[in-house]
Design a protein that fits this description.
The protein is an alpha/beta fold. Helix content is about 35%, strand content about 15%. The chain is built from nine helices and twelve strands. It has helices at about 50-70, 105-125, 145-150, 180-195, 210-220, 230-240, 250-255, 265-270, 275-290; strands at about 5, 10-15, 35-40, 75-80, 90-95, 130-135, 135-140, 170, 180, 200-205, 220-225, 260. The strands form five sheets. A four-stranded parallel sheet has the order 3-4-6-10, sandwiched between helices. Strands 1-2 form a two-stranded antiparallel sheet. Helix 1 (about 50-70) runs parallel beside helix 2. The longest helix is centred in the N-terminal third of the chain and has 21 residues, at about 50-70. The two termini are about 30 Å apart. About 40% of the residues are buried.
């Protein structure tokens, strides 16, 4: 499989290279690079966490080893809000909040493990400037079809996102999160590569936080309180029957993720998101309805329903 690998001087797409084996990165792919931005990640299969572990954790570790072997001076790693330990929903936390994840969710477990891997990497390779980006949930119009397939399944109708189809909106206690447009995330990565003082972690998210009240206003739907247990039971049943790929463990994690304070990115990188959270979601919902996508097979647009 291929992964996009980007440096400040060059852009690569490695169509025959896999991070799953050491040989995939053993041919000097990083030689002469000014920076490596590591973005590769596999969300599925959610029923087989050993497979995602091999790609996400072992594969990422191989990328880090290859960076050190090629003496690349800058490594920017795509971490996530999912790396954070459970935290508050009524105020924001900075980058010092513990990163132990939610252990039952494979995604969070893997992101947290790589935070510890990078701790060791930074200790052993102080000559490499390491930056960890921790964005909220990333969306854009062109990713809508892919994200529908990843989390809702291939047969979830995109037109269900239309306001007239959602007179009521489930309001689950704790379901409050932060989002970000991928273009704004990309700008933060660019700034981090070119800022020689940028090190360690940066929270990235747009305002305001997203909850049922905000979505209800956007869609003209009335929020209706739904107990956590009922929502989780329904998702667990659908996941167990393989009707949806999103696991109930990830749902548990989302309910517990803290809100992030992004002051450090604004102060040290000069970063400001151009899109508000509402603009991000409106663009994404439009993409769902239209079956939007991009040219590569994983992001190919497909309209269902």
């Amino acid at each position: 499989m291929g992964w996009p690998l980007v440096s400040a001087r060059r852009s690569y797409f490695l169509p025959c290279v896999s991070v799953r084996t050491r040989s995939g990165l053993a041919n000097g792919w990083f030689e002469g690079a000014d920076a490596v931005i590591h973005l590769a990640w596999a969300f599925q299969p959610t029923h087989d966490p050993a497979t995602t572990w091999r790609t996400n954790v072992l594969g990422s570790s191989r990328v880090f080893e290859a960076v050190a072997a090629a003496r690349v001076p800058v490594l920017v790693h795509a971490s996530s809000v999912g790396a954070y330990s459970p935290g508050p929903k009524d105020h924001a936390v900075d980058e010092s909040w513990p990163t132990h994840g939610w252990p039952d969710a494979a995604y969070c477990r893997e992101k947290a493990y790589l935070e510890r891997t990078l701790d060791i990497f930074e200790r052993d390779h102080p000559e490499v400037r390491v930056v960890r980006m921790r964005p909220g949930f990333l969306f854009k119009r062109e990713s809508a079809s892919e994200q529908r397939r990843i989390f809702g399944g291939r047969f979830l109708p995109g037109p269900l996102a239309r306001p007239e189809m959602l007179p009521f909106l489930p309001d689950v206690p704790g379901l409050r999160m932060q989002v970000l447009h991928t273009d704004d995330a990309a700008e933060a990565y660019r700034l981090a590569v070119h800022s020689e003082a940028a090190r360690s972690a940066f929270n990235l998210a747009a305002d305001p936080p997203v909850d049922a009240s905000m979505l209800g206003e956007m869609l003209g739907s009335r929020p209706v309180r739904l107990p956590r247990a009922a929502a989780r039971s329904a998702l667990a049943a659908a996941w167990g029957l393989r009707l949806v790929p999103a696991s109930p463990h990830l749902f548990d994690a989302v309910l517990r993720l803290p809100l992030m304070d992004c002051s450090r990115a604004r102060t040290e990188l000069g970063w400001r998101p151009r899109h508000t959270a509402e603009e991000v979601l409106r663009e994404f919902l439009d993409g769902l309805q239209q079956g939007a996508g991009m040219e590569t097979e994983p992001m190919r647009g497909r309209k269902v329903g």
